[in-house]
């Protein structure tokens, strides 16, 4: 298991304390990240229904596809599981287990907003179980928002992998290389550094393709004079850290230099600001005001950052727990981990560039997980042999 048994005992104990506060006799947890947090259970087969029933007093029980039961046995502390075959009915198995636990007439919470408990299954569950179901979405996330020292240590290992991938990708992002080759270099370096498959593979967007939201490699060849936007999430035991960087082929223009310096300055100011007690909205307002003061035509088109930690595809962020946006007066707390991204969309009207950081909130400030330089990586003369246009696939 990723952590010592005491770490999971604390998590479940605190969950049950919140259950008492909400007057719940049991909860049904279906979100893959929450299952991982509570038990260390993970599988790539999470699209099949799986659930952890946590009664207030009795032992927890896992409902899972028969193939996945081996993960419960090998990876978790859970001693009781109820597998269903591919020809079986997961929802009927869930209801049957609740009845066997004598919870039929109890107040039972379930995660109504869970990606992997879809509406048609919830409807069937309601019809079969009856009254007593209560939406408890967020009851586990209340514990996840602040990372323990043990979690911080694991996230640092994810950061080592992400930083190794980013450093290699920046060197590979030269004219004549394809976006695919850059992506291959990044992922190979991450995996060789001990990283595991991230919830999202790296974003690699060159030249004009950087203006397409969440675009990533499509085989395009990098041209002389073009920049390459990179965003990499390192992963270890499903914990993530993320960072943005930018490579430039050719001399750094005045506008690109201005963008680089503004993002670096903004990150420095944010790190000076962020500490326990500062509100989420204050962080967003500082990032937004600084980036939107630019004179190169760029915008901060998104939130200024988000909570980050445990993640499965399709996203590495915990933005549904906390996003850095105006109007949120929640205070930062020690142990929060945040991907802070004062990036710039539309430099000169046609370039997206980024420099970002993942930080943890400490007792009296914040600290980065990374040591990688923030300046753009500039390749002024290095380039691979560049084919004639006829040799480039149509449309690239």
UniProtKB/TrEMBL annotation:
Residues 11-145 form the Creatinase N-terminal domain. It is an enzyme of class 3 (hydrolase). Its EC number is 3.4.13.9. The keyword Hydrolase applies. GO terms for molecular function: proline dipeptidase activity. Coiled coil: none annotated. InterPro entries: Creatin/AminoP/Spt16_N, Creatinase/aminopeptidase-like, Creatinase_N, Pept_M24, Peptidase_M24B. Pfam families: Creatinase_N, Peptidase_M24. Keywords: Dipeptidase, Hydrolase, Protease. CDD domains: APP_MetAP. SUPFAM superfamilies: Creatinase/aminopeptidase (SSF55920), Creatinase/prolidase N-terminal domain (SSF53092). Residues 155-363 form the Peptidase M24 domain. This is Xaa-Pro dipeptidase. It comes from Brachybacterium fresconis. The lineage of its organism: Bacteria, Bacillati, Actinomycetota, Actinomycetes, Micrococcales.
